[in-house]
Amino acid sequence: MASLTLLSGTTSHVSRITNTQGQMSNGQGQIQTRHQTTFRLDNRPAYFRGVVDLGEGEPASAAGIDRNGMFHALAVRNDSTGLICYEPSTLLYVAAAALIGIGVLMLFIFIGIFMIAGGLWVGYLARRNSQARAMLSQPAGAAPFRAAA
User: Fold this and answer.
1) Kind and range of the H or E element at 129?
2) Alpha-carbon distance 105 to 99, whole Å?
3) Average pLDDT across the chain, whole number
4) How far apart are CA 112 and CA 14, in angstroms?
5) SS3 track for 130-142
6) 3-state secondary structure at position 85
7) Tens digits of per-residue pLDDT, 1-45?
């Protein structure tokens, strides 16, 4: 499992990508929109799942994981404004608890073991997101901002 890394520097090549997909039929359907921000932090390519308030040449810090030469930011702080954007973890904690609880109840059949394992994995992801946000402890007076999923 990859450990969290903290990067700080100047941003460049900031780009926001919106992906909309879904289907409609007879006036009903489901549409889903996802946002992603790509940028370079001290000339290292990085991305964040969500929208980050960053401009060209602004100082920023990010906590995340290096994956195949790309930095996956789990939390980003705009150092000039103090705004922190992060991947939410509350729902992941709830999902982890639900999976583990249902898995314990389902232990009499073999599927409970897989549900508990899935719950532990989701709990790990939630803890990692919380740790990334904590690494970017906010300066005085700055309000945290949770990115839309």
Assistant:
1) helix 111-135
2) 10
3) 86
4) 44
5) HHHHHHCCCCCCC
6) strand
7) 668 888 889 999 998 988 888 888 887 888 888 889 999 998 899
